[in-house]
Structures are given as C-alpha cells and as structure tokens.
Amino acid sequence: KVRAELLNRGTPDENVMIISFDFSDVSRSKEVVDQTLEKFGGLDYLVSNHAAMVTGPFLALPYLQDPDYLERIFRVNLFSHIQLAIQAIPHLEKNNGHIYFTSSLAGEIPVYRSSLYCSTKHAMNGFFYSLQQELLARESSVSLTIGSLGLILTKEISQLMAFGHPYPAWARGSLEECSRRVMEAYITRPQTMTYPRIAGMIYRANWYFDPHFHEGIIQRFKPKGTKGKGYKEVVEKGTSVDQRIKMGYQLGYGPGDK
User: Which residues contact 54 (CB under 8 A, 6 or more apart)?
Assistant: First the structure.
C-alpha cells in the first residue's frame, strides 16, 4: 500500500524500497540500515516512527505485568530506536544528516491508563535529549529532532472517538497538519517539534504547576455517569477485545500475543 501510494505520487520506482521488519528483534535493527545503504549508497535522514500503542490500567491487566511482555514493548518502543541511531549516525555524519524520532506528550506527563506506553516514551525522551547534547558536545554534523505529538486524528483514532472521548478540542490535531509540521521539521531541524502546540503548553504547565494534576487526569478519563473515580468502568473498557481490535496498529501487542 505504501509503495503504491508513493508511485502514484510520482516517485520513481528505483527510489522506493519497502522493508518489512519486526522491531522487537532489536539485534537485527542493523539490517534495516544495511539494506538501505546497499540500495541507495548513503543515508541522509533517519525517521524513526514505530511504536506499540499499549493501553489499559496496569494493575488490572495481568498480561501487562508479564516480564517478557514488558521487555518486548520496551524493545519495540525504545531499544530498537537506540540501535537504529547507533547504526545510522556514522553514515549520517558523512552527509550532514538528520534524525527525527516520533515521541509523544505521553512522554512528558503521566496517564494512568497508559503507564507502560508512557514509561517507554519518557525513557525515549530521556535518552534522545541526552543524545542531542552529546552530538552537540562532539560537534557532530548530525542534528536530531524529537517530535512530541498529542492526540492525532488518524483513521483508527477517529473511529474510536466516535464512541465518546475525554479530549478537548485543544488536545486534538489533524493528521494533515501534523504531517505538514513533521515535514517542516525535517527541513528546519528543531530540537523539539510539538503538535498540537497548545496541547504541549497546557499539559506541561499543568504537570509542573498544578498540585491536583493526578486528580484532574482521573476525572477526565472517568466514563460519564459513573460514581467515584470510575476505576472499575475504566478497567472494563480497557479489557474490551473489541476496543483493542478497533485500534488496528495495536494488534499483536495484546493478551495472548507473543
């Protein structure tokens, strides 16, 4: 599908290569870079965008607590990104290249329904902002941008939101505008690209300065019509297989998926 879309937009066939890869197999991440170099002879950009979007209350879902599952999600969401950077940087330095990593505002604030996902994104931010400093300290020709994205209205997310959601308008962003901002970042090479920008400002300010931030998150995600903090209802919603199937990109990372 991706190849067909690129060719339809006029990209020459010789400039297109699709590599199917499971990034939970971290030790083989080098193969992605090697195949690219073999095909094109060099590397100008690394755009690292993959992630396992894992949701659900951690204490209520035993499969989230399994050590092998935890490790697998960290391999996909963090370790494979690190390995790609390690393999790509020597080649990018030859061409004044650029790296773009897709992170999330969930890597800057906590959300209890997504503790595992949040933890991988917090770790990603910690590592790659530190790597930014190291690249600058060693006067590398490689620049690095971390994309801090909020709720982007992809097809799958839009379908889920049709059943109701707790996100105000300022927290949501269009897929088209997000794509434009990301492509701009490839050119302007900022250290951080936040979209929606207002969401980043509000979430960051609330997390650092609002002493009742946790309670606000709990109330925001509480299903309508429930009493108390709504944890039982959140758990029931989080264990719904139908809900997980609607999130097509999450398939393969649920209960029973090894």
Answer: 64, 73, 114, 116, 117, 250, 253
> For 148-174, b where at least 16 C-beta lie within 10 A, e where not — what string?
bbbbbbeeebeeeeeeeeeeeeebbbe
Q: Are 96 and 153 in contact (CB under 8 A)?
A: no
**Other C-beta atoms lying within 10 Å of the C-beta of residue 121:** 24
Query: What DSSP state is assigned to residue 17?
Result: -
Round to whole Å and give the CA distance between 171 and 214: 17
- CA–CA dist 92, 94 (Å, integer): 5
45 has catalytic annotation: no
Q: Can you give the pTM of this predicted structure?
A: 0.88
User: 3-state class of 167 per DSSP?
Assistant: coil
Over residues 208-234, the pLDDT tens digits come to 999 999 999 998 888 888 888 989 888
In the numeric block, which tokens belong to residue 35?
A: 């195949």
Q: Map tokens 């204490």 to a residue.
A: 59
Catalytic residue among 117, 195, 203, 253: 117
Tell me 223's DSSP state. P
- Do the beta carbons of residue 33 and residue 43 sit within 8 Å? yes
User: Residue 215: which of 198, 204, 238, 231 has the closest Cα?
Assistant: 231
